[in-house]
Design brief:
The chain has 925 residues and is of the alpha+beta class. Helix 10 (332-360) packs across helix 12 (394-405) and helix 21 crosses helix 22 (835-847).
């Protein structure tokens, strides 16, 4: 009996004649109208019973089922709202992808800080759950991309001591279960077959009773009643081992899987045929998968048992497959031969839809965050496409889903996919050598290549575990790939990095009122009067708190204002400004005195340059989206007085032509002198009108958000200072672009006077180069190219002469010794030249079919190069290691060519003298 048993004893269950049972198979407690039922109904306790026998009398498509659900709840007093993007980090900074509809309202709505967009509400929210990736295709029911149909109600207890953005109770558990029952009835389900399994929910520091709704072997809904929070003194111990107590707010959080409800209505063999019928047919045809009637019948029978392959429920998927084969009375290899290509087809269809969601919502592949997850899905999909030999390009498969989902940026989506495929091929070419070396290390041992190493290979090189297994097998090593490999990869990157902030201010700071921010009322004003509320002495200076201020505190990538505070005839310098919980701290070089009346003077030139650069950042961001595509989003920004930078998510390098177009778009807005205005609308209204592109620079807290409008071109939530009209910027000049990381490009630019200064610096460099070359500035590029080509030609001539010299030296001369190694000549030679000369000489000997050992004492140290012709049983790396050790150093390399050395140049001749013995001993070994 769970600690929360009383929470499940609903009046509705009693009114409808439900009984509480314990599953004879798994031990879970569940509620049912069938007094004779012994099992909870969920696999593996029971198998799917709706395949070929749909749970609803009429089949529904995805769109029809979605509409049926939303209309039902609209008719029951809920307001329908539009879905949010799948990239949850567009409106919150603690997660990356939207995994449930409740993510749309966390953390601000669920904590009661802001009201929901409607209460109660209904939504069908696209979601992506990376942790399901390894189940996709196998279980018949798992999809990584799915729509969570839901209804939510946000409630507050009558005795709550704090104020919340919503109050009272809308509805709670009884009404939620009643809605669920009535929805089933409205679709014609046999409600006698429905079971409600008790499964308390825990997550993110919250908890509550929850119910899994099972119908004909499939979990179709989860009803979560979020009403508890973690509390060391709480009376309820939950499954995570922590204790919880009830909180002031309590929230109805439901999830109805659109795909599974559609599947239930159609009774197809798997959910994939119901969700992706056209894609499955297309993939089968292009992969050449064609089963006869007997094979189709076997696959169909296996599908009814596929729920037993859930990696979360079994220790080994292949053992579970063997049990299914036994039940079907078929050889497991035969079963695997039939179903594994289909499992890959199902996964390709699902992953293509996942990629369409990701790229359609503006995620750009990269090595971090959502970009990493997108890249992981794409590469896994590419691997599956190649494995089953689908005769269709991946970008076409993703585009089919993007078209079906109604995305308008399909050309960009296809280009992203093609670009990523090229990068993947290059990665595999580089990474395969790494795998070969690793496989050689583990070959002949009893140890498989560790899982952690497989994860690192994937993380660092993008190498799929199947590829590692293939190469390892060829080289005599073994690999045990865990069934949940891709879920383990996703776990490494699923959570967003939480920002850690250290707040070491004095406790009395919490008693101070929030500082009135005058800089929002008049952003060009630089002088003001204020009262000193408190002064905090620091190791370096003082933190001064005023009742009001024109000083802008550092934030949003904008540096703090500087200036002075004047008390009578004395002044103190303001060298930094920070904000803590609404209180602005002015760092000064002296104490102005608590309670004093002060006059503040902001450095006007610095403020105006920062205003120009901050507004120019908005212009550059808008221009980048205009030129590069709507997928472009801000990845970071830093404003300055001489230049600023904007990091944007983009899948390839920004070209010079694109830079010029970005400059033109930005400066057209400057010339148009459009107004830059601010407003403070309700958050929900702002999001409804402008979407989540508002939050390019981060998500601000609060019920109201400050929006900055640059004419009709750009609107963003922003806390910084700006010019009043774009004409005040003067000009915008992009100084350079550079890659920050894969998938993120940096635009460095200057605005206003700084743009002119930067242009003049560039011109000065051009004129200086023209003076050196003694040409007109416009002729510098052509002249520089001519000089460069001549320099390259001379370099090649020098290399050719070096090779001729090396060949001449190799043909004989002083300091050359030739010995016999069982029919192969070996040359030992001292040549005090640079590394290029040593390599060239060694290569010349090798070209003559001789083993070469060449040493040098140039530059005060000893160095060796060893070359070995094909077919000679001498390891160059071992020879170099032995010789380098004799001069106090080290070295190595592949068997055919290696180099190394050490500091003891005096021991060089002795080391070379020992070379014949070293060669013979290593050859004999």
């Amino acid at each position: 009996m769970s600690d929360l048993e009383a929470e499940y004893r609903l009046d509705y269950f009693e009114e409808e004649g439900f009984v509480r049972k314990e599953c004879a198979s798994c031990g879970a407690h569940f509620w049912t109208r069938d007094v004779d039922r012994e099992l909870c109904g969920e696999p593996p306790c029971e198998d799917y019973s709706f395949i070929d026998d749909p749970g609803f009398p009429e089949p529904y498509s995805l769109s029809e089922m979605r509409e049926a659900f939303l209309s039902f709840f609209e008719e029951h007093g809920h307001e329908r709202i539009d879905p949010y993007p799948v990239a949850a980090n567009r409106w919150r900074d603690d997660v990356l992808l939207t995994q449930a509809s409740i993510y749309d309202f966390q953390p601000l709505v669920t904590s009661g800080q802001t009201p929901p967009p409607a209460n109660p509400l209904t939504i069908s929210q696209p979601c992506i759950r990376m942790q399901d990736i390894d189940n996709v295709g196998k279980t018949g029911r798992h999809t990584m991309a799915f729509e969570m149909m839901a209804h939510h109600a946000f409630n507050t207890r009558d005795d709550a001591e704090e104020e919340y953005a919503y109050e009272g109770e809308v509805y709670w558990k009884d009404e939620t279960v009643r809605y669920c029952d009535e929805l089933f009835e409205s679709l014609g389900a046999d409600i006698e077959e429905i079971t409600y399994i008790e499964d308390p929910w825990v997550g993110g520091g919250n908890a509550g009773p929850a119910i899994e709704v099972i119908y004909k072997g499939a979990e179709l809904a989860t009803l979560v009643f979020m009403c508890m929070e973690q509390d060391p003194d709480g009376e309820y111990e939950m499954k995570d081992g922590n204790t919880y107590s009830f909180m002031d707010t309590y929230i109805v959080d439901t999830g109805y899987g659109l795909e599974r409800w559609t599947w239930m209505s159609q009774g197809t063999a798997t959910v994939y045929e119901a969700v992706y019928p056209d894609a499955i047919d297309f993939l089968k045809e292009n992969a050449g998968i064609d089963h006869d009637e007997e094979e189709q019948a076997l696959v169909h029978r296996a599908a009814k048992l596929s729920g037993r392959l859930d990696i979360d429920d079994v220790d080994d998927v292949e053992d579970a497959r063997g049990e299914i084969a036994d039940r079907l009375d078929v050889d497991v290899d035969r079963l695997r031969e039939l179903v594994e290509p289909l499992e890959a087809i199902y996964a390709i269809a699902d992953h293509s839809r996942t990629l369409a969601y990701m790229f359609g919502d503006g995620i750009v592949p990269s090595n971090v965050g959502t970009g990493y997850l997108a890249r992981m899905v794409l590469r896994r999909t590419k691997r599956l496409v190649d494995e089953v030999d689908v005769d269709a390009p991946l970008d076409e498969l993703v585009d089919m889903q993007a078209e079906r989902l109604g995305y308008e940026n399909r050309d960009t989506i296809r280009e992203i996919v093609r670009t990523e495929e090229r990068k993947y091929r290059q990665t595999l070419e580089r990474g395969s050598r790494k795998v070969e070396s690793l496989a050689d290390e583990y070959a002949g041992t009893d140890e498989p290549i560790p899982t952690e190493t497989l994860l690192e290979l994937y993380d660092s090189h993008g190498i799929q575990p199947d590829m590692v297994a293939d190469i390892a097998e060829e080289r005599g090593a073994t690999v045990d790939v865990p069934d949940d490999f891709y879920a383990l990869v996703a776990d490494r990157h699923e959570e967003a990095d939480a920002e850690e902030g250290a707040d070491d201010v004095d406790e009395r700071l919490g008693d101070l009122p929030e500082t009135e921010k005058l800089y929002y009322n008049d952003q060009g004003r630089t002088e003001f009067e204020a009262v000193v509320l408190d002064v905090f002495e620091r190791e370096e200076g003082y933190d001064v708190v005023l009742d009001q201020t024109m000083f802008y505190p550092e934030g949003g990538g904008q540096p703090a204002d500087r200036g002075q505070l004047t008390v009578g005839e004395a002044s103190v310098n303001v060298v930094d400004v920070q904000e803590s919980d609404g209180v602005v701290l002015h760092r000064t070089d002296a104490d102005p005195g608590k309670g004093e009346f002060v006059t503040g003077q902001v450095d006007g030139d610095r403020r105006n340059r920062l205003r120009a650069h901050h507004t120019a950042t908005h212009l550059i961001g808008h221009a980048a989206r205009e030129v590069l595509g709507d997928h472009v989003r801000q990845a970071g920004a830093q404003k300055g007085i001489d230049s600023s930078r904007l990091d944007v998510r983009h899948y390839e390098r920004i070209t010079r032509e694109e830079v010029k177009r970005i400059e033109r778009v930005a400066n057209e807005l400057v010339r148009d002198d459009v107004p830059v205005r601010q407003e403070w609308p309700d958050r929900n209204e702002a999001e409804a009108e402008h979407g989540f592109d508002l939050y390019q620079g981060g998500v601000p807290p609060g019920t109201n958000v400050r929006l900055i409008h640059v004419g009709d071109a750009d609107v963003q939530a922003c806390a910084g200072t700006h010019v009043d009209r774009t004409g005040q910027i003067g000009a915008v000049k992009v100084l350079k672009t550079e890659p920050v990381q894969d998938g993120v490009e940096r635009l460095v630019f200057a605005a206003g006077g700084a743009a002119i200064e930067a242009t003049q610096r560039t011109e000065d460099a051009l004129y200086d180069a023209a003076d050196v070359l003694d040409v007109d500035p416009l002729d510098v590029p052509e002249t520089a190219e001519r000089f460069f080509e001549e320099w390259k030609a001379r370099g090649k001539e020098i290399e050719s002469l070096k090779e001729e010299l090396a060949a001449a030296r190799a043909s004989g001369g002083a300091d050359v010794e030739e010995v016999d190694l069982g029919g192969t000549a070996a040359v030992i030679q001292r040549l005090d030249g640079d590394a290029d000369e040593l390599r060239a000489t060694a290569n010349a000997h090798v070209d003559d079919g001789k083993v070469a050992v060449v040493g040098s004492g140039a530059d005060g140290s000893a160095s060796f190069v060893v070359g070995v012709p094909d077919g000679v049983d001498v390891n160059a790396g071992q020879v170099v290691a032995e010789l380098a050790g004799r001069v106090g150093g080290g070295g190595g390399g592949p068997p055919d060519f290696a180099q190394g050395g050490g500091p003891d140049v005096d021991a060089l001749d002795d080391a070379l003298a020992s070379a014949p013995d070293v060669l013979r001993s290593l050859q004999e070994a």
